[in-house]
Batch of 2 targets.
Target 1
Amino acid sequence: MEARRGTLIMILALIAVSSVSTGEALSSDYYQSTCPNLRQIVCEAVKKKINETAVTIPAVIRLFFHDAMITGSDASVLISLPTEDAEKDSSDNKSLAGDGFDTVIRAKKEVEKACPGVVSCADILALATSCAIELSGGPSYTVELGRYDGLVSNASLVDGNLPGPNFDLDKLIAIFDKHGFTLVDLVALSGAHTVGFCHCSRFADRLYNYNGQLGATDPTFNPQFADQLKQACPSNVGPTIAVNLDPFTPITFDNLYFSNLVNGYGLLTSDEVLYTDTRSRPIVQWFAANQTAFFEAFVVAIGKVGSLDVKTSAEGEIRKDCTAYNKKQ
């Protein structure tokens, strides 16, 4: 019992450390006088898109994360270049669902009708992420605003700066640590895999070639789950076939992801390692047992994502079109 209490104290202390904001230039009431109904406008656009396809939920969340982890929370991932060498063209971003991009573009269009030339695409993406999380059952949280849109989007900057599906905990920590994230942040943000899907190719080795042994299956898989995955993802499956990251509540933002890890239902190596590695296991167990604790930690961590390398007016712009720079680059 004492060991358990000590573990919980350690986790709570790490959450407290994570709560320190890195986005001093941002403010929750940034658009209070210039676009007072901003959140309502963005959330309505997100809701309409979700009603068309539930893929919108994970697509927007993932887009926000992939954007911020490269050159900061500056909407650089939205840029489309004729040379096809923008961030979105990198191999790591090829799997970003088009529904995420479309959601932001639609929201921007509606925002421009009400508040022309005022709100950045970066802020719309941050708000859309919050709306998608809340609309799928996740926590409601205040979004700090005041970002400018970035002026650099280069595919070469992406390589090695996003977590991979086969990463062990050391590799995950290396990616997150350079941005100031704690281990609690890392585990909490991984909890976004409670929604969404994954292509079979991203975890096929766990089913058919574990540790380089042809025909071997990762023993940390729940055996029944492994059999189900083999039916959905045969060894010769096509590159477009995907399965849900959470097989039980795939469009609900909840803490079941962590219970899945405990029970061998983690789809990716980078998911299941959070439970199999003893350094992160207590955090997984805590979040699995307490959804409120997960939500609180997630809100802190996603706030830190949105505060990464925020651009000022001198470093960015308010794009008229989220997919193109205003100024000639």
Target 2
Amino acid sequence: MSQHLLLILLSLLFILLNPISASPIIQKFKEAPQFYNSADCPVLDPGDDDNDVAAKKPIFCSRRAVHVAMTLDSAYIRGSVAAVLSVLQHSSCPENIVFHFVASASADASSLRSTVSASFPYLDFAVYVFNVSSVSRLISSSIRSALDCPLNYARSYLADLLPPCVRRVVYLDSDLILVDDIAKLAATDLGRDSVLAAPEYCNANFTSYFTSAFWSNPTLSLTFADRKACYFNTGVMVIDLSRWREGAYTARIEEWMAMQKRIRIYQLGSLPPFLLVFAGLIKPVNHRWNQHGLGGDNFRGLCRDLHPGPVSLLHWSGKGKPWARLDAGRPCPLDALWSPYDLLQTPFALDS
């Protein structure tokens, strides 16, 4: 028996005797410095809800706190940790920020929670388990398999997952960093009836987000007839959860996903249902709050430049992620702006 074949057989035996866990090994991260409130930060009220959440941790129901929602999983944990650090570092009142993390029921929520606590031992946060079975049956395949992950759809269920006392939340993807105070974004005026706010991009070809089957259908094509529908990126949104709950918007999104199962009306994951429900009805936010597309397109992930204008948030939406390109030794120029927020503890890192 050749040495090569023997090694293969020994490897197979090792795998059989030591089955690989369903969850990838969680990476280890350095502890971030603690950030403190400035002198003029508001004193947080405990909220007016008489419930267990407010009793245990009043900040979780405070209307003066900045509530941030993100998903959390082992594949994107490195990006999530960097995003949290960027939020805290550029906040004038970091102690007034609460993070609401959503993890899949199949994930090791305990390990994810420990990872966040180790890097941010002072952080006010909670991890909510998202049972993906309800949405998995509604997901249709898209142009990139990563977009089909059920956790991508968690943003549609925040009103159900977060405590009822949380009335407003800033939703952030894990592949971004802030370079400005998130309180400015959280304070966006939603007016009298808007449910969410986000930067709009009315120069984008809106029709391309839906198939010919959608536009050729006499009923479906009238969906946007009474509104000026523009593309917006769902990776950065300010959401009024109270209005969302009152309007049963999760059910509205699910209705379009069920329609997609019968007639293929779009190609791009969790974004089109949001556009179908909200495009033309959102409160526009300055483009500086989502310099998106830095991950390139959904196929090749090529390098891209910033859009013209000021920058408050950089978003590596698209196929290419800065940590992957840096590890591969093929970073894009703008990936250097993400690198300072990377807390990954490498085996050869020297303590400063």
